[in-house]
Amino acid sequence: MRMISRGCRSLMTAVVLHGARMRVAARPVRFIQCGGGDTLNSADQLINVKLVSWLENRINRERHNPECEKHTVLNRNVINCYSLLKSKLVELEGLHHLISDTDDRELEQLACSEGQQCSEQVSLLHQQLVQLLVPEQQLCDRFIVEVTAGVGGQEAMLFAADLLHMYQRYVEKHSWEWNVMDINHNDLGGVRNCTVMVCGEGAHSRLRFEGGVHRVQRVPHTEKSGRIHTSTAAVALLIQPESCDIDIKPKDIQVQTMKSSGAGGQHVNTTDSAVRLIHLPTGTTVQCQQERSQIRNKELAMTILRSKLHQAQLNRQHDSQQHNRFTQVGSTARSDKIRTYNYPADRITDHRVGRSLHNIDNFLSAGICLEQLLDTLADNYREQCLTSIINTQ
Fold first, then answer.
1. Which DSSP letter does residue 66 get?
2. In what order do the strands lie in the sheet containing 274-279?
3. What is the pLDDT of residue 29?
């Protein structure tokens, strides 16, 4: 093993002296077949080649530009991580050449073993590098989830209820808080619309890609002839701003009180505990009947209203970005969807990443299928951010 390491170090010196920098992009994608039947991936299959090439050019530019000195210091962690990654890539390439050229089976096995370890280190360093370049956003720990039935009548409301239960299970599974602020049921147990406050560290960063139109294809319980119906439900996530972020003048608020509806004992349908607030300048209307106290419902309704006004403010500032709430919810039309739940095929397809999963029951139960798709969406977001960084800088 020590002999292999010395060979890799000599190879690294030769590469640096000859090429002055790594040219990973010029190498073809290939596998190395080891003696035991295992395969050893090449560097091209373990890393984002464009990212490595961009980093190499960027670091070289900053080293020769005094004006970038401060910027370079701020990215010292990126440079250090890249340097480690670069050395491991050269070492991995040296092991590839060694395995290809040697006739010594024992030496080949040792090289393959070290190559597997080196590949794992390359993958880990590449992941760390991506996280440094696209760090996790420190999003708020409190946000509002709105689920609204779209096209499809009663079946759309039943589907909205299924989505609502899925998110509730997911939130409770992670020990986050789930507080229903307003819900409007139909007679079949479906949900016309629902507003929920979710609280918990990391909750928003995990669920933020759920905003959009969800489409379902299945035979409804109300369908007697067995025809497959297509219905939709819309999901929106609204960040709850700090009180100082949104200034709401009392004169701009019209307060209406009414009797609560649904289950709740003697207070329901007997006292005016439910509150509806209308923001006169924008026409935004919110309602809350969660608590028995009218004062408490008014406070919660103000929280919802503040979040909606904050989201509207973000929409005006970022109308071309995904922060736009209309982009999340769209028109609730069947063709305007982010995900399709196809019951006859037992398949869930997310159209943003082109990935399909099976086992709808597991997905709607907030099982491993949902976790896998959320991971894919987060990875896709990071890839898009990396592409944006590479193309714009």
1. G
2. 253-258, 274-279, 284-288
3. 31
Q: Residue-wise over 54-91: b if at least 16 C-beta within 10 A, else e?
A: bbbebbeebeeeeeeeeebeebeebbebbebbbbbbbb
119 neighbors 46 (Cβ within 8 angstroms): yes
What pTM does this model have? 0.66
* Residue ranges, the chain, pLDDT below 70: 1-47, 65-74, 136-139, 240-245, 260-271, 315-336, 392-393
Residue 221 to residue 346: CA distance in whole angstroms: 17
Helix, strand or coil, per DSSP, at residue 58: helix
- Percent helix, strand and coil across the chain, each to the nearest 5: 50, 20, 30
Bridge partner list, 193: 148, 184
Q: Which of 193, 212, 178, 205 is nearest to 146 (CA)?
A: 193
User: What secondary structure does DSSP assign to 184-231, as a single string?
Assistant: EE-TTS-EEEEEEEEE-TTHHHHHGGG-EEEEEEE--TT-SS---EEE
- Cα–Cα distance for residue pair 96/329, rounded to 1 Å: 50
Tally Cβ neighbours within 10 Å of residue 369.
Answer: 18
| pLDDT at residue number 109 | 82
Q: Count CB atoms within 10 A of the CB of residue 329.
A: 18
| Whole-number Å distance between alpha carbons of 29 and 335 | 38
Asked if residues 43 and 24 have their Cβ atoms less than 8 Å apart, the reply is: yes
The answer for 204, left when phi > 0, alpha when psi is -120 to 50, beta otherwise, is alpha
Q: How far apart are CA 143 and CA 239, in angstroms?
A: 5
Q: Which two tokens stand for residue 355?
A: 């990935």
Please give the structure tokens belonging to residue 383. Answer: 């890839």
Structure tokens at 352: 């943003």
pLDDT tens by residue, 236-247: 998 766 554 677
Confidence at residue 4, expressed as pLDDT on a 0 to 100 scale: 39
Residue 270: CB atoms within 10 Å: 11
Closest CA to 183 of 209, 151, 144, 152: 144
Q: Which residue has the tokens 């951010």?
A: 385
Q: Are residues 236 and 325 in contact, defined by beta-carbon separation less than 8 angstroms?
A: yes
The C-alpha angle 255, 316, 339, rounded to 5 degrees, equals 90
